[in-house]
Design the sequence.
């Protein structure tokens, strides 16, 4: 999960990602950030996030995003 | 049946009465019948298009639902399958669902393309000559784009297994045709709309009053402000108005397009609210944005959300794009990694432009938006350095400057809508740099635009009111805030607003133009 936080911090150094739970609803991550994240996750974790999973619930917090990566990795 | 017609008010009044008097169990059936009656009055021959989209969407959903259902049963019966075998089976089911999805999408978008090219384009061009705003023609013929986008979005969500599959064809028909949305949106997501569309609603005096208030505010914006200023916008389009006169056109057009479009949406949301149904917001105080990307997250929100979910994301996170991103990152760094995002943006803005109409100025409009967004994105590190270095950039005054800057920039782009001749548009824009004819403000030009002093006073009051309402909205619903003031004062405000619509509502060019659109069909 630390690696994921580092990717996020590179996008928005000013945000405390460990605490924040409304990354999309709070307008911190926009669609450009989300696509960048998908590319980074694909590269770092070898997990392809399908387009149907690009919904706010999956990107609102680090925990939710990590859970998504783990679930997709399992599948 | 235009929103601003007496027929629409009578129709809505009868529908609301039946909706609450008849048994609540059949409320959704009343809405379905009402929506089809609304559609029938607008133009019976276009019912075929609505039925085509509804039936093909229904068949697509039903087939996918059955496939998923039998696949789940099959996997249950074969619980001994290995992980790889299950994965292969699921991929097979997904692939056959994808084939169904593609067939329905192709059929519907072919119909949309055909209608836009063959039926709408000649009408749109002639209407623009009459001063009709292009967004009013987006839904032609009779809401096709809006109900089709809503249906196709839902179908894709069912394919992605992110929405419940509706197997009742009549309920699906209601979702597709719910009448307040047919004219100019908003485009709803099924999972949001189903919460209130199919449920029973008891008469709630406060809710109905809120809905009527919202409608009244919409009528005020549309009839008192937009339709009044439309006359001056038409005049200012003329080739003789350059330099500062063109700048006045940009500001007037900004007022017209916002008042007209958001006013229409207020009426749609207000009508739905009187029925206890929640439609999504389409305008989130867009003129308070600080950059173009933010503006498009706050203007025509539901369309932009649709474009993002179903065009931008599928392009940018596709396998070829992810591969491109990885390769380009190695060679070009940050820009390389973002290359697929820019390609996705370009294609999405081109699609949005073409959807507005098959004309060069709409493509220019899309490209200008895309260009400004991409440039801002690439300059972000520079902005951050600037903000870190200069303390004044973090103060309130700088926020106001950013808002004004965005207002001018975005409306310079929006005004392309008025110029089918792209060369003429650019000539006018460049005239801002060398024609300093500020005297148009006092040399009598302003009184030759079809507006007299009283019109300017009404417009000024109207625009100030819109501004104040937007400021109040920052603290939440204005109608809820109004509940806190003495009842008598509240009634006075509403009665004044009602009389303003009746007395100052423009029943001239704008009214006829609105009627004209719907009489075409």
Sequence:
């Amino acid at each position: 999960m630390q690696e994921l936080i580092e990717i996020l911090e590179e996008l928005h150094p000013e945000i405390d990602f460990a605490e924040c739970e409304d990354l999309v609803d709070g307008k911190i991550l926009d669609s450009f950030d989300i696509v960048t994240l998908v590319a980074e996750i694909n590269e770092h974790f070898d997990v392809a996030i399908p387009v149907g999973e690009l919904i706010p619930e999956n990107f609102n917090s680090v925990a939710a995003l990590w859970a998504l990566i783990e679930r997709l990795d399992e599948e | 049946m235009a929103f601003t017609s007496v027929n629409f008010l009578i129709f809505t009044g009868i529908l609301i009465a039946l909706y609450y008097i008849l048994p609540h169990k059949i409320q959704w059936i009343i809405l379905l019948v009402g929506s089809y009656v609304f559609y029938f009055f607008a133009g019976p021959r276009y019912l075929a298009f609505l039925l085509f989209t509804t039936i093909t969407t229904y068949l697509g959903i039903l087939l996918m639902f059955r496939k998923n259902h039998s696949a789940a049963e099959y996997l249950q019966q074969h619980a001994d399958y290995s992980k790889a075998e299950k994965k292969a089976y699921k991929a097979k089911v997904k692939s056959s669902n994808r084939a169904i999805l593609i067939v329905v999408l192709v059929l519907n978008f072919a119909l949309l393309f055909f209608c836009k090219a063959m039926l709408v384009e000649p009408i749109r061009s002639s209407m623009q000559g009459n001063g009709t705003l292009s967004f009013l023609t987006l839904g032609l013929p009779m809401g096709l784009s809006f109900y089709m986008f809503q249906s196709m979005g839902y179908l894709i969500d069912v394919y992605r297994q992110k929405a419940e599959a509706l197997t009742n064809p009549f309920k699906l028909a209601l979702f597709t045709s719910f009448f307040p949305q047919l004219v100019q949106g908003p485009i709803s997501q099924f999972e949001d709309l189903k919460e209130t569309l199919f449920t029973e609603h008891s008469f709630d005096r406060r809710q109905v009053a809120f809905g009527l208030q919202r409608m009244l505010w919409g009528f005020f914006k549309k009839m008192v402000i937009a339709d009044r200023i439309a006359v001056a916008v038409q005049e200012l389009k003329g080739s003789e108005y350059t330099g500062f006169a063109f700048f006045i056109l940009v500001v007037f057009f900004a007022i017209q397009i916002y008042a007209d479009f958001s006013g229409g949406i207020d009426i749609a949301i207000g009508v739905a609210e009187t029925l206890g149904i929640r439609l999504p917001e389409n305008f989130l105080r867009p003129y308070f944005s600080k950059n173009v990307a933010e503006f498009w997250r706050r203007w025509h929100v539901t369309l932009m959300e649709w474009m993002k979910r179903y065009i931008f994301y599928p392009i940018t996170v596709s396998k070829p794009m992810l591969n491109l991103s990885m390769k380009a990152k190695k060679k070009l760094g940050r820009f390389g990694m973002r290359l697929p995002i820019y390609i996705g943006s370009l294609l999405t803005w081109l699609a949005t432009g073409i959807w507005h109409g098959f004309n060069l100025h709409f493509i220019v409009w899309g490209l200008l938006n895309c260009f400004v967004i991409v440039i801002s994105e690439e300059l972000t590190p520079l902005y951050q350095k600037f903000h870190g270095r200069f303390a004044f950039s973090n103060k309130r005054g700088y926020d106001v400057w950013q808002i004004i800057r965005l207002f001018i920039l975005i409306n310079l782009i929006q005004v392309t809508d008025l110029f089918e001749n792209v060369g003429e548009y650019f000539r006018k824009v460049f005239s801002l740099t060398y024609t300093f004819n500020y005297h148009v403000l006092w040399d009598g030009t302003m009184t030759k635009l079809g507006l007299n002093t009283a019109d300017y006073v009404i417009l000024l009051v109207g625009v100030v009111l819109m501004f104040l309402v937007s400021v109040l909205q920052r603290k939440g619903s204005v109608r809820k805030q109004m509940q806190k003031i003495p009842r008598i004062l509240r009634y006075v405000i509403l009665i004044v607003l009602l009389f303003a619509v009746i007395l100052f509502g423009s029943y001239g060019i704008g009214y006829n133009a609105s009627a004209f659109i719907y009489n075409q069909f």
Q: What stands out?
A: Chain A touches chain B at residues 27, 30-32, 34-36, 38-39, 42-43, 48-52, 54-55, 75 (CB under 8 Å). The longest helix of chain A spans residues 31-45. Chain A has a mean pLDDT of 89. Helices of chain A lie at 2-11, 31-45, 56-59, 62-74.
